[in-house]
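Lab meeting, action items carried over

1. Structure of the two-component assembly. Owner: GW. Status: complete.
Input record:
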Amino acid sequence: MSQSDQLTPPAEKEAAGTSTAGVPAPAPVTEGRRGGDTLYFALRNKKLVGGFIVVLIMALLGLFGPWINDNSPTDYIAQPALPPGGEHLLGTTMFGQDVAAQFLHGMRATFVVGIFGGGLGALVGMTIGFVAGYRGGIVDEILNMFTNILLVIPTLAVLIIIAAYLKVRGVVAEAVFIGLTSWPWAARAVRSQTLSLASRDFVDLARLSGVRTWKIIVREIAPNMSSYLFMTFILLFGGAVLAAATLDFIGLGPTDGMSLGLMLNNAVRWSALQLGLWWWFVPPGLGITAVVGSLYVMNVGLDEVFNPRLREM
Amino acid sequence: MRQYFGRKLLIYALTFFAAVTINWMIPRFMPGDPIAAMVARANTQQVEAAAAMRAHYENLFGLDQPVWQQYINFWGALLRGDLGVSIWAFPRPVTDLLVSAVPYTLALLIPAILLSYWAGNRFGAFAARRKFLDNAVLPIGYILTATPYMWLALLLAWSLAIVAGIFPVSHAYGFELTPSLSWEFIWSLITHWVLPFTSLFLVMFGGWAIGMRNMIIFELEADYSNYLQALGARRKLVRRYAYRNAVLPQLTGLALQLGTIVGGALVTEIVFSYPGIGFMILQAINSQDYFLLQGAFLFIVIGVLIANFIIDAVYTLVDPRTRTRLQGAQ
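Predicted assembly:
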C-alpha cells in the first residue's frame, strides 16, 4: 500500500496530540554553512544515495529506453510467448509484443504519473495547508472541514468511477485526477507545520512591515519547511505511482499507451499465469516496487539528513 | 463525549453526502451523451436489457425535470435501497449482487487488517533498536510496503498455486461443490481463502512494521524514556511505555490507510477471481455495467465510513487523554 501517511510520523503525531518533536526543526535558514552541512550528510547517507541511484536508473530507462529499444510496445512484431533472452531481451507476450519495449514505455508512463500526479497533489495540498494554517479562523475551519471530508472518502473508488466514464484515457489525464484526489493528508500535514511557524518572530516581523500574505508564505514560511515539503512530494509521487498501477490493473488504464499496470492487466487477462509466461508479469511489478521502494528508502535517508536526532552515530 | 462523537458523525454524514453527490454528478457532467454512450457500450444482446437500461437511466436522469428534482429523485431511490438493475447479471438488482459479494470481501479484509496490524506492530516494536533485526526489517518492510498488491498476489498465485500446486488459484470454493455446511465445503473455502489473505497480509505487514519501528525509535528518544532509563527502569518496561505511546499514531494511520487497503483488497480479489466487491467492479467495467459500478462505489464508501467510526471509538478507548478530555467536556 502507499504508506504515505504512516511514513510521516510528525503529522501523525500532531494528529494524535502527542509530542511535536521530530520534525526537521524549522529554524531560520542561515545560508551557506547549513547548505554545506546538508550536502555533507546527504552524500554520506547510504539510504539516500542508494535509493537515489535506483530511482535515477529507472528514470533514465524510462527517458532513453524507448529510443534505444525502438520496438513498438503494442505492435505484434515477433513470435508469441518467446522466453527471455535472444533478440527480445525480456521475451514476448502471448501476441508477440516485445515485453522489454512495453516495460520501457511503461516506466516512462510511471514517471509521468509520479511527477504530474505527485506534483499536482503537492501543489494543491501545500496551497490549502499554507492558507489554512496561516490565515486561521473561519478560512481554516472551512478548509479543514473540506480536507477532513476528502480524507475519509476512499479516493481510489472515486478514481474508478471517473475513469470508467472517460472514453479516452491518457496517462497525463490519469495523473491529473490522481493529483486532484491525493492531497488531503499533505494539506493536513502542511497546515500543522504552518501553524507552528506562523507565530514565530520573523513571521510577525514580516507581517508588521506590511509584506503581503502570499509573499510571507512563499518567502518566510515555505523555505523554513522546504525539507518537509520535499519529503511530502516524494511520498505523493510514490502514492500516485501505486494508485495509477491499481487503476491500470483494474482495466482503467491508458487507452492510447502502455503502462506497467496495464502490462499486469493484460498478463492476467490473457492467462499468463496459467501459461507460465512469468516474464510478462514479473518485470512490471518489479519495476513499480523498485521505484516506489527506493523513493521510500530515500525519504528515510532525507529524514536522517535533515533531522540530526535520527542520524546513526 | 456526545460532542466529540457528534462532530465526528457530522463529518461522516457530510462525507456520505459528498460521495453520493459525486456519484450523481460524474455520469451527468462527463463530456458527451452519457445515456446513449452507456446503452451503446453496454453492448447487450438482450433487447429487454437494453430497454430496461435506457428506461432506468432516463428515469434516473429524468431529463425533462429540473436538476434539483433529478437530484432529489436520486436520493429517493438510494434511500429505498434501489441502486438499479445489473447489466452484467441481468436482471438481478445491483443491491442484491453487492450484498452477496460483501461477505467475501470482509472475510479477506477484516482478518488481514487485524492480524497484520497486530503482528506488524509487535514485530516492528521488537525489531527497533536491535541492530541485526533492524537491518533486516527495514529493507524487507520497505520492499513489502512498496509492492503493488496485485503483483504480490500474482507472484503468490503463480508460485504457490500454479507451479507448486499447493493451493487453488481462483474462486472462493471448488466448482464441483455447492455451498453447504459440510467439512468438505468449509475446507475448500479455507484453502481458497489462504492465498488472497496472505498477499493482503504481507503488504500491510511491511507497512505497519516500518511505521512502528520508526515510532518506537522516536519514543525511545523522548524525555520520558530517558528519564525512566536514568531512574534505572528495566529496558523492557521502557519499551512497554514506548509501545503504548507509539500505538496511537499507528491507529490514526490505520484510519488514513483504509481507502488504500480497500483498493488493495479489490485488486487482490481480481487476481484470484475471488467473488467479492473487487471482482464485481471488474465485471462491471468489462461489461460497462454502470449501475453495478456506482453501487459498488457507494458500498465501499459506506464500509470505509463505518470502519472509520469504529477506529474513532477504539481511539477514545485506547488513549486516556482523549478519554479525560471527553469526560471533562461533559
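2. GW to write a short summary for the group page. Key points so far: The CA atoms of residues 197 and 226 of chain A lie 12 Å apart. The mean pLDDT of chain A is 83.
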